[in-house]
Write a structure and sequence with these properties.
Number of helices: 1
Distance between the termini: 26 Å
Oligomer: single chain
Number of domains: 1
Order of helices and strands: HEEEEEEEEEEE
Structural class: mainly beta
Shape: globular
Number of strands: 11
Length: 151
């Protein structure tokens, strides 16, 4: 029975939470946006999957807002940045060294922070019957903490 539980947990972490096809992003990282309710400008600096939708990290007036796509409008204007290119993409399967044996996880979020990239992967298994989670299931790691997994 324990082996079946371990197998279920390992499959959960590499199965896309969004299903078969990854939904498209409403805006690209480092793209300028306008907030729907105020027309204030901001920039998208990250995205992660939460619930059943993409949640975008928008910097506006030096504050970080986490919003679904219906809360802003895209502009197709991009912020100049010296950040290196991303090492991983949303949906990539990576190996993470959480324990004695590296475990596979799927990239469910990407975030640009001070010209560096962070990648969101699930760190805890789902709990059967859980109704609410007080903290995020994602842990944010740098590319040096991850290795591309070949499936």
């Amino acid at each position: 029975m324990i082996n079946q539980i371990k197998l279920l947990e390992s499959c959960w972490h590499i199965s896309p939470p969004w299903g078969q096809a990854m939904p498209p992003l409403a805006v690209q990282i480092l793209e300028k946006v306008f907030l729907s309710n105020s027309d204030l400008p901001g920039y998208c600096c990250g995205v992660h999957w939460e619930g059943q939708e993409w949640i975008y990290a928008i910097v506006c007036l030096s504050e970080m807002l986490y919003l679904p796509s219906k809360e802003f409008h895209r502009t197709n204007v991009f912020k100049n940045s010296t950040a290196p290119t991303q090492a991983f993409q949303l949906g990539d399967i990576v190996e993470v060294d959480f324990s004695e044996q590296p475990t596979r996880r799927i990239i469910q979020g990407i975030f640009s922070l001070k010209n560096n990239w962070l990648y969101g992967v699930e760190w805890c298994p789902p709990i059967v019957g859980e109704t609410a989670l007080n903290q995020s299931r994602l842990i944010w790691l740098a590319d040096i903490d991850l290795v591309k997994a070949w499936v």
